[in-house]
Amino acid sequence: MLITEILARNARLYGEKVALIEREPERNHRDAITWKEFDVRANQIANYLIKKGIGKNDNVVHLMMNCLDWLPVYFGILRTGALAVPLNFRFEADTVFACTELAQAKMVVFGPEFIRHIDQIKSKLDGFVQEYIYVGDKKKMPDYAVWYKDVLNDSEDNDPKIDIALTDDAALYFTSGTTGDPKAVLLTHRNLEFSCYIENHHHGQTHDDCFLCIPPLYHTGAKMHWFGNFIVGARSVILKGIDPKWILDAISEEQVTVVWLLVPWALDILFAIESGELRLSNYNLDQWRLMHIGAQPVPSSLIKEWQKIFPHHQYDTNYGLTETTGPGCVHLGLTNTRKVGAIGVPGFDWEIKLVDSDFNEVNVGEPGELAVRGPGVMKEYYKNETATSEVLIDGWLLTGDIARVDDEGFIWLVDRKKDVIITGGENIFPVEIEDFLQGHEKIKDVAVIGIPSTRLGEIATAIVDVKADCTLTRTELIEFCKSLPRFKRPRRIIFGPVPRNPTGKIEKPKLREQYTGNKEAFKFDGKAQEEQKPALWGRRKTDRKTT
Fold it and tell me: Is 342 helix (H, G, I), strand (E, B) or coil?
């Protein structure tokens, strides 16, 4: 069933029940719409776009922050038969232009946060963009745009009944660009439908569940996890903000049962509880049954600490890519917490194998590139045959992640293929070191990157973000790392923030760019490893205390 048809069914079955709730604690704002209102808004958007000539084979850029109208706009675009093109809200103006140009989008729907971006590139966009729809305060609306509320008021609310097949193209999702320029992933209506079934199959949502959506909706992870509630007509909360108090307030007051967190947010919640900033006795959390995490490697130490505080919670790790229509091609499973640290087993209706550079399967226990096959695999990289042929082989998708499988069939993520550090001929997988360092009680976050070395090729460098009000010295970390094999120990340590994108992934290209040219931090390349060991951990003699 098309997801647009699932929305229509929800409107028929649960029309007067709440579908979406928006909470913006910073403004003390709360709003909500019913399933009927959701469906009507999607129809109004679709009918307006159709009236303006939008239809199959057209593309519509969707550039909005999370809000109550994000999903109605998305579904309205899909109902025309055109492709929805959600863009990362962190893209700079030039990247917004590049993505819009690649899509040759005929329309752009945008929020107030992106007026400056559109203003900067509009002269170039006008070569193919025919109209701009503005979703926000009319007082701030640019004179070249039409107002969203006028679009709704001037459009019919009936289903346009466009003939759309499951095999038709549905959406373009741009990759995060953590390993290079964003690529456009082409997904079909079948891909989107399957993500509803797999998410619900994995986490068992019923009509009585309530999902808390915090990550950005432009990303496949957030929306595809929401699909598990959507398919059973269950309500969901869109929370604008990631403060631990706001998260617990929303869970308590809206009776949330399912929460998908990113690692930094889960850590922030634990830190707030540990410091006494949050008192669990002030919240009604008994109904909260599931906390799951994805989008990045999850330190086992985090989950063990979480289970001490929330022993009744179900837990799942979810692995996926934009190219697999988001999370679920591999997941831990609700009953496998003894395997915390693994990303899990093949998801519902998915197959996996680990392969070498010649696409031959590796032996059990050996690292290899993770390849997956299932109904969520993308159709292609849009207008990029070369990139498509590099990752799609006989229906298998090469993920770019190095993993290993244990003797029970559980998959353990080793690292990104492009992030592997080769030092003195040895392969070092940064994730293994990051997971180890994350176990230090004073470390808030950590990233490990490879830095060029004339002698060793690359050296492992750890960027360490220390918990507030904690003091951590290089000497302590040197001692802590002695339980690692010598070749895996970081050769340098830098104390500083770890940048992450909106989906929680470490922005390693940014770190490499930031530190490769830092002569003070990288004066030594390891030639006098034994004699000058302290120097190998960075030149600064002072210790760092965060406040």
Answer: strand
pLDDT of residue 91: 87
Cβ partners under 8 Å of residue 419, min gap 6: 179, 429, 430, 431, 449, 450, 508
CA distance 50 to 542: 64
Tens of pLDDT, residue by residue over 468-520, are 888 898 888 888 988 887 778 888 888 988 888 665 677 777 887 788 754 33
- In the CATH scheme, what architecture does the domain 33-164 have? 3-Layer(aba) Sandwich (3.40)
Residue spans of the chain under pLDDT 50:
178-179, 518-547
Q: How confident is the model at residue 171, as a pLDDT?
A: 98
Q: How far apart are CA 469 and CA 450, in angstroms?
A: 29
- Angstrom distance (rounded) from CA 45 to CA 152: 6
DSSP string, 426-495: EEE-HHHHHHHHHTSTTEEEEEEEEEEETTTEEEEEEEEEEPTT-EE-HHHHHHHGGGS-GGGS-SEEEE
For 420-545, which CATH class? alpha beta
Q: Who contacts 372 (Cβ-Cβ below 8 Å, separation ≥6)?
A: 324, 329, 330, 346, 350, 351, 352, 396, 397, 399
Distances (CA, A) of 260 to 86, 88, 122, 442: 20, 19, 36, 25
